[in-house]
Amino acid sequence: MSALTVLADGDFVAPGPSIFNFPPLWPGAPEWATKPVLFAMVGALLVVALGWSAFAKPKLVPRGMQNIGELGYLFVRDQVARPFLGKDAERWMPLLVPIFFLVFAWNLMGVIPGIQFPIASHIAFPVVLALAIYVIKLYLGIKHQGFGGYIKNLFPSGLPKPVYIILVPLELLQNFVTAPFTHAVRLFANMFAGHMILAFFSAVGFWFLFENLTPLGAPIGVLGVVMAILMTGFEIFIQYLQAFLFTLLAAMYIGASLHPDH
Amino acid sequence: MSVLAEVSGNVTAIGYGLAAIGPGIGVGIIFGQGVQAIARQPEAYGLIRQNMLLGFVLTEALALLGLVAPFIFQAI
Amino acid sequence: MSEQRKPEEDGRDFANAAWSIPSYLVAGMLAYGGIGWLLGRWLGVEAFFPIGIVFGAVLAVYVVYVKYGR
ipTM score of the complex? Predict the structure, then answer.
């Protein structure tokens, strides 16, 4: 018996990680055809539609969708691409803009009523994006610095020889394993935790106000609803921030492969 | 005596939650004060940057040690 | 860091450093924790695993200091 159940009859069950498991969309559907997969594809199509309607027939004086598209393009170019890629920024915009819009669309689905599931909280989706960036990073690094040069540039210069021996496992693991891992996990963990917070406060509100209304439990239910609303606002901010950071890190890895100055 | 509240589930999660408080505050202080210092004295940027990174890496190490502490104490 | 660098290059280096610090720490702990764990299994000394983790964390702090802090 926990403290919460004193206030109302019955057991309040806090939502667990099982809220991330979905059955197939319709009976007899293949096992992978679940809600996250469907909305991942919807998000991708949305980004394509946005890009198409904004930039298919660009006009000198932007109107309608072109305004939104240019706003996003300028944001990515000035905040992400130019600081990290310098004069190569324009070349990599076709990669960075869709990544930003795709991740942002996937994240925003966490707060859109009726969908309410941030796609990136299934780790497979951010991992695929991060792996794509990782392959590009390795390819560019080896192309621009040569294989030996790429490995050599990982290590700081000017240390005594024996120190390099103990640095080898650390640097190799950092560059080839944990850098892409943290890239994906930052997005995944934020979306996972945010969805859990929203689910928890919504469940508190729903349980204490609708399923089990008691005079003692009602204030907690009101608190749950208020917190759910506040956290939804906070979550929109986090979703935008994580989409921005994912794009920023992608630009950072590409830039570090293009201009090795360490 | 009736039990009013009890902890069920994995206790190490609570441990990591507690261990993350200190580094969280620390990282906030480091970057907050660092940005303030750069705003006050932009010409000392290089020096402030170095010390900010050093403080950040030391604080972050504590947070990550908190993350692996359950495994460490399992092994001993 | 030399004097003739542009401010945006400084900012790029700083962001580079700040974002790769956590992955350095994780990599250090993983590498030397793993080596310590294997050594411990091989030699039958269980204390090598925590020693390796702490050594890896210290080494990662040192690497970050050498690469970005000087």
Answer: 0.83
